[in-house]
Write a structure and sequence with these properties.
Distance between the termini of chain A: 75 Å
Strand content of chain A: 15-25%
Low-confidence stretches of chain A: none
Number of domains of chain A: 3
Shape of chain A: elongated
Structural class of chain A: alpha/beta
CATH superfamily of the largest domain in chain A: Response regulator
Strand order of the largest sheet of chain A: 2-1-3-4-5-11
Number of strands of chain A: 12
Oligomer: homodimer
CATH topology of the largest domain in chain A: Rossmann fold
Radius of gyration of chain A: 26 Å
CATH architecture of the largest domain in chain A: 3-Layer(aba) Sandwich
Chain lengths: 332, 332
DNA sequence: TTGTAGGCGTTATCAA
DNA sequence: TTGATAACGCCTACAA
């Protein structure tokens, strides 16, 4: 309990407890194989010296970092926080820490200071990629630890993937609109290259083709409130009776844009979103949307990473989605 | 470029380049002090071997982790994501990584496996605490790295603090309501022990006391949409003409609750929030609120931590706030 | 069940 | 400007 100038090392504890450093080490890593007597002595000495394990030494010796890196396209975007919470939860139970890197904030290509430096076994024991726009070559180096892609994905990146059933979600949403009698349906999509946008467009096409239809228009947004609002003029010009939006934020933004133009939802135009963010139920008109369980998605990603690290083959998990009917879509 | 079974070490590079390991090390940490000739040779050997620096070795040698830990009360809460983005940005420029820990997910007291184990120089080079409810004793150990508190705070925790001017924000909000002629003002507050709630209550009191008034009631919420909605009945019972809410989520939740009860905002009741989350402008009635710049708050916290680490004295920064007038509050 | 001793990969000191 | 070498703190054969 004294306040030593130098933090106590495993050696100090050993001396004080009258045992060897190996025994002290074992008390920390595998207590069951040391005798009760030695263990008690060590525990007492630990308390007396205020010793805490120096993780740096252990990590070097074991060639492991004790942390997993999550690559997020935009850390300020609340969409990802719930996924991160799910990841964090599973990692914690496995004794691993969560490192977070915002891919916008880091040079994607520089060989010396860029992202490449992080994709290294000495930086993280594994990587969870939430950004589908990164160069797959980054992950193909033999120095790169196990990788799992979650939510967005990219062909060419090795390892397991965990995704919501995006196509099915979009199909459900559009089928719902069709069942309500809508025929002029517009798709307010995400960025064109984005893997989510692509899958959801497939679902839209699948649903519409049953009726021999196509979207009256596809407008490209940026998954943001603002881009939804700004799409209002183009949406109105296409005269749809209903709009399927690739996420809730664009749907809520569009709601505002339509209101500014004097159009009512769902009176003039029906709206369906995607994600079921918490705010969807509190939008000006409670939003009908597709629920995807973001915490579960994060948990699954972490679990896949752990089993991949343990040598299990990488599989791909597709998580079910479901339609959440509220008040923003009604019969034509 | 070959694919060695064992990752190349600094030794391999040195041999290949015909120099000593010390020189190779210097090329990485301080290139200017090595001759052009040696440097070129090393760079060539690095490329040929595919060598990447093993951070574990460096960290042990330098007794540093290369990462800062952020303690977040609830990682799934979008309020914190923008703060984290600000933190991450500044850390990155300083060559530090961001570790995130959800304090809900971790045992707060267990001496062997709890939070205490993380507050250790071998785990992180510094700590940014966004949770005001943690036991201050945790941070008082000599083994604990530098600490900065941000947003919420706790007397007894050492180190710098960075806060929004919560009292002033609340004062501005209530003064605005008073100027609109409101006299029956209710305070929908956060949890009673929360430091934010306390400061904001002071601001409310300060503004009201100028008119010799007090809140018609103080209702305790949980900073969530749901708690705002659930407060509606109690709010209505107190018959205020205006409500100041400790955050935007509760204000938007309350808006929904009031609408369900057939009351209109701002027709029947005026509302002011706090935070200016992005959704505030897209609420059923665009929300008048107090803007606090969360990204800047995170940046400042990280900067304070860095300067504290470099031995500068710890100061406390109070960040300005400003009133954002929209449409949820109007004259009585 | 315990102890001894070598090594994980790097950097910093010191001398050349 | 460079090289040899001793740490950094811990874990784990291996031997006792």
């Amino acid at each position: 309990m004294s306040s030593p100038s130098r933090p106590p090392k495993i050696h100090d504890v050993a001396k004080r407890a009258g045992v060897s450093v190996a025994t002290v080490s074992r008390v920390f890593s595998n207590p069951d194989i040391v005798s009760e007597k030695s263990r008690k002595a060590v525990e007492k000495a630990v308390l007396e010296t205020g010793y805490t394990l120096n993780v740096l030494g252990r990590n070097l010796r074991q060639s492991q970092v004790g942390a997993v890196l999550a690559l997020v396209p935009n850390l300020a975007n609340p969409f990802f926080s719930e996924i991160l919470a799910g990841i964090s939860e599973v990692l914690r139970d496995a004794g691993l820490n969560l490192l977070v890197l915002d891919t916008r904030q880091v040079d994607r290509s520089s060989p010396t200071h860029g992202l490449r430096n992080y994709l290294n076994r000495s930086h993280a024991d594994g990587i969870i990629v939430l950004d589908g726009s990164l160069d797959p070559a980054l992950f193909q180096s033999p120095a790169c630890p196990p990788v799992v892609q979650a939510c967005e994905w990219n062909e060419g990146v090795p390892g397991a993937r965990v995704l919501a059933d995006n196509a099915e979600g979009a199909r459900l949403a559009v089928a719902h609109l069709l069942a309500l009698g809508h025929r002029r349906i517009l798709h307010l999509a995400g960025p064109r290259q984005n893997s989510l946008s692509v899958s959801r467009a497939e679902g839209v096409a699948a649903a519409l083709s049953c009726e021999g239809l196509e979207p009256v228009a596809v407008i490209e947004g940026a998954f943001t409130l603002r881009s939804g609002r700004e799409a209002a003029a183009a949406v109105i010009a296409a005269r749809p009776t209903a709009v399927f939006c690739d996420n809730d934020e664009m749907a809520i933004g569009l709601m505002a844009g339509l209101a500014e133009a004097g159009l009512s939802v769902p009176g003039d135009i029906s709206l369906v979103g995607f994600d079921n963010i918490e705010m969807a139920a509190y939008a000006p008109v409670p939003l009908t949307t597709v629920r995807q369980r973001r915490a579960v998605l994060g948990q699954e990603a972490a679990r896949l990473l752990l089993s991949q690290r343990d040598g299990d083959p990488s599989e791909t998990r597709v998580l079910p989605v479901e339609l959440c009917i509220r008040q923003s879509a009604r019969p034509v």
